[in-house]
Amino acid sequence: MTNDSGRPLATEGNNVEASAAKGCRRALLIAIGYRRKDGKGFELPSHKHLESLKTLIESYGYLENVNVLADDGIHTMPTHDNILAAMENLVKDAKPGDRFFLYYCGHGAQIDNKNGTEEDGLDELIWPVDLVVNKERDFHDVERYHNHILDDTIHDILVKTLPIGSQLQALFDCCRAGTMMDLEYCRGTPSLRSIPGPEEPSSGDADVQGKQENAKQMSTDKPAAKRSGSGGPLNLPHTPSGIRGQKGTYIFEGESGNPKGDAPPPKAHVVSWGSCMDEQQAWQHPETGGAMTQAFIEILKENNHPTYEELLHNLHERIASKSRQIEKDQGKPLGSIKQKPQVGFNNPPDMKKRFSL
Largest CB tally within 10 Å, which of 54, 205, 213, 216? Predict the structure, then answer.
């Protein structure tokens, strides 16, 4: 089937993409390369996937209302104020049936959480192009960064305002991305059969200053050591159900995620795909760009409606493969790069449900 432009619409079985004729579709793509101080190129190859990502979302019906912020000299600059304004415009006047897509590729970091809403004691944040770093402050000091955007802010703008019946899918290809939208339910492994061992070393000893010749980490923040309370079944801190902002109630096959058994009130369908766990780094390759973005595009081009479990499983497999290639290019020990994609939900998830953009 095609739409008015003649482009084929993504389909689920024999049905046209749900709500193709209902509501609006809007997308916001943010890609930040951070031009080097000497003016010779960028720190990160974050712009590489913009065109292929636009082509992908077109197949799901995002034919217009696609806003791009990028420091590539072509698009609007992804400054702090521009990003916040673009996020607000993305979901402005949202109605049931509307669908939204957010993409961020750039640096991510963490700072100390001061209001007790984070199980690990840390807030996640993204780096606008005009972020200022006070290098005299410790890596998690709240005074280290200026012009950053916190996960709390992203949640307040993009999640709280959405009505029931609307949908937002987000993709964060950056370090510390696991719970970047502070959603209540988080899943880090595709099934019980592939749950990792009780304790794995962090990617902690990797150089995080972006000085690699063949691949760049997407954060200049120092890696967090494995914290007490982590290393649970999904290798992330476990928190009580139903507490927004306290990082993820972890869902297993056949469980509702609510220990009392009563169903939580329904909310907008919000899903956040993170390139790695909160304590991990994400990787980009100068030739192929972000491993997460590349894998996401490849998988959905092959099958535009996998189940959530299939998509998460395939992301794990492909990123593991790409990590091995980076290790080979870097001369690093096999298995030294730890990057495990995560998926978060605003409602108790059904991992057998089919992905829809």
Answer: 216
